[in-house]
Every structure is written in structure tokens, then in C-alpha cells.
Amino acid sequence: MNPDIAVPATSADLPPAVLHTRDARGVHSLVLNRPATFNALSEEMLAALQAALDAVALDASARIVVLSAQGKAFCAGHNLKEMRAQPELAYYQKLFAQCTRMMLAIQHLPVPVIAKVQALATAAGCQLVAQSDLAVAASQATFGVNGIDVGLFCATPSVPLVRNMPAKQAMEMLLTGEFITADEARARGLVNRVVPLDALDAEVEKMVQAILAKPREAVAMGKALFYKQRETGIEAAYQLAGQTMACNMVHPVAQEGVQAFIEKRKPQWPAPAA
After folding, report:
1. Considering all CA atoms of the chain, what is the largest pairwise distance in Å, rounded to the nearest integer?
2. pLDDT per residue over 174-200, tens digit each?
3. Average pLDDT of 61-73?
């Protein structure tokens, strides 16, 4: 969290808080676009992200979301000045519920969300990285959950954080507020890949192309199962996984893939719906 972040202006001449584009492949690009406030998760930013994620959810031919940011920070967490201006429990409960809805929308999407992290990701910004399905970071990026520095334990960021890295490593970050490097984040499981800043776009594109080569239906089934089984006991997890695999296997994409393997040819996946 950055205590010096100013409350963002709301005048009509400001550019969108989130730049949302889609290419012909079904790859959605969501770019946090408030560099002057280090892309803090203000009410405006949360609402813009929610609207963009909702739009992706309605796109039947969406394949991937790439989440990135403009400026010197990926995301500096919640806007503390905005929060301090309304010191009321009801307001804080509403704000954190709004943030939780947005974070869960990432998990509920049927397509993978890749965080492309070019710089600082702290507090709820680190949460945003942890909540994403995959993450690629520039070597200069740093990560922290330093709300404790201002007397505010990063409770909601801890939820995905402890689901990304070992408990004691997560607890150390939460209790000390200390930052870790991109390489440390990769070693702890917070990000998948680390590359120099000038190679970040290309590395994300490699990951995008690898996923696009797989059938959308199998990816969607797999993502849903991955998160659902993680929150259950092992017996229930196996039941869920077995049912998912059975449903996946009877789907035409799996039938074609297996037949192509038997015939030693490349599978001919059906074209995604327009």
C-alpha cells in the first residue's frame, strides 16, 4: 500500500481506468491505466475491472485474458487516502466486498488470466497477481503485502497468497511487510516466469500461444476443476476430478485429440464459436 496515493479524479476527460481490447484470437487485454496513482485499486478501478471481467465472461469465444499496467507500478494496492476519507465500518465492508467480487471473477472466468507484471505489486496489487491463474514478471518487479507497515494486516491479500506459496514464507511477508524480488517470487510460486523487462511482452506471448494451441473446452473444464478440487478433501477431489475427466473425454475435442494421437497426426480442433 502507498499512503501517498491521491484520490483519482473523476472528471469526464480522464481516460478509462482500464483499457480493454480484444484481438481476433479471442485474447483480451486489460491494462490498468492510472499510472499517476500507481494503479491503486480505487472504487473506480475496481468497478472498471469488474466491468471488463464481466464482459469477458459474456464472450463465448474468449480464450485468454492478459492483465497488465501502465507506469512505474503494476498495482500499489488499495487507495489509502480514499479509504481514510470515509472512516466507517460499513464503507470498508462494502469496499472489501467489492474487491473480493472482482478477485473471484478472475477465478470464475472459464479462460486463463495471465498477470503481466512490469514493476511493483504490493498489498492488493500482490493479491491481484496471486489471484491470477498465471503470472510473468519483469526481473525488476517487486512484490509485497506491506499493509502491516501502517497497522493494517493484509487479510484479504493473504487469501490467494497462501494458496500460491508455502505458509511460513507467506506469513513472513505478511508480518514483516518486507518485499521480495521477482526471482524470489518465482522460487516461492507466486509467478511462473521472470524475464528482463524488454522481453516481457514476448514471454507472455509465448505463453498465450501455447494455451491457444489447446482446445478452449478442455482448458475451461481444467481450470474449473483445478480450483474446485483444491478446496476439498482428497476423496472428494478425486470424485470431482474423475467426473471432470469423464465429461472431458466424451467431448468432441478429446475424442479428436485421442484419435489424432492414435493416427499419429495433428488434431483438427473445431473452430471456436464466433
Report:
1. 66
2. 999 999 999 999 999 999 999 999 999
3. 97
Report d(CA 228, CA 166) in Å as an integer.
Answer: 20
Residue 8 pLDDT > 70: no
Would you say how long the chain is, in residues?
274
| Chain region(s) in the chain for CATH 1.10.12.10 | 216-262
- What are the E-state strand segments in 106-249? 113-117, 120-122, 134-138, 142-144, 180-181, 193-195
Phi then psi dihedrals of residue 120, to 5 deg: -55, 135
Q: Which residues of 197-233 are buried (b: 16+ CB within 10 A; e: fewer)?
A: eeebeebbeebbeebeebbbbebbbebbbeeebeeee
CATH of domain 216-262: 1.10.12.10
Write the class of the CATH domain 18-212: alpha beta
CB 159 within 8 A of CB 116: no
